[in-house]
Design a protein that fits this description.
Helices cover 16% and strands 39% of the residues. The protein is of the alpha+beta class and 141 residues long. It has a domain of 94 residues.
Amino acid sequence: MQFNNDHQYTIGLRVKKTKNWPFLFIVFLLVLAIVYSRLITHSMIVGKYYFKYYACTAMGDLPNRDDMLTLLDENKYRSSYWGSGEYRIEYEIFRTVLVLSNSGGTVSNELEIKKVGNRINIVLDETCDFFYEKTDWKISD
């Protein structure tokens, strides 16, 4: 720290001016746009999702018929295939996961939620392209 003639203290840190700030600002905006495009909030997933079954040799616990999955606002779900129970959303670094737990709490299934443009899909199996597609933005039961 130095004392100058104007009786002000100056600290020995120098801020290096950069001419790269427009580039850094554009990179920041690009990262912000990517994060926003992948953002999935609780209010965005509430609604009805339709699964259209077709024959595929996928392995695992997948619906073997058409199904409607309804995600309610109070973290409850119902489906003719999965039954009813509670759900929660888990945010991971590169994906968002929907965890369905049945009414007894003994079985849970993890399904990835993907945002494709303005549509929200719940992925069951990427090999066979099985997914629930959101059919509405509001529940009207």
